[in-house]
Design brief:
By secondary structure, the protein is mostly helical. It has two domains: 1-60; 65-128. It contains four helices and no strands. It is flat.
């Protein structure tokens, strides 16, 4: 069995266990906090990383090659824009549903809007 499949099965087991534990806590009336939600995110990250890249010795696209770096760059940029849209929708939804605006969400939205162009500027300055 290939390493990617093994990592995939281990990753999906970790994701299902983490989600199952969180649903159990929810059904038991316990509070769901940062630990449970971040554990689900970390388990999903490890799962997708494992099935995408596998280990270094395997054949296929490697993360440290040019194509792998290009894929990581494009997916990172896409993830940035998706996260920015979700943050905007959460600010908008909070305003429409509750009639308030959270200052911390507004600050994060403002930082998210200028973060990518600012980092591009510093990268260009570094290569001049």
């Amino acid at each position: 069995m290939k390493t990617r499949k093994i990592l995939g099965w281990i990753g999906i087991a970790a994701v299902l266990l983490t989600i199952g534990f969180t649903l159990y806590r929810l059904a038991a009336g316990q509070e769901i906090g940062f630990g449970e939600l971040s554990s689900i995110g970390i388990a999903l990250m490890l799962f997708f990383s494992g099935i995408t890249w596998g280990l270094r010795g395997e054949e296929g696209i490697r993360q440290d090659e040019e194509l792998g770096r290009r894929i990581s760059e494009k997916s990172g940029l896409l993830g940035y824009y998706i996260l920015l849209i979700l943050l905007f929708l959460s600010v908008l939804g909070e305003k429409l549903l509750y009639g308030i605006q959270s200052p911390s969400l507004l600050i994060l939205l403002a930082v998210g809007i200028f973060l990518h162009p600012m980092l591009e500027f510093f990268q260009v300055r570094r290569y001049r």
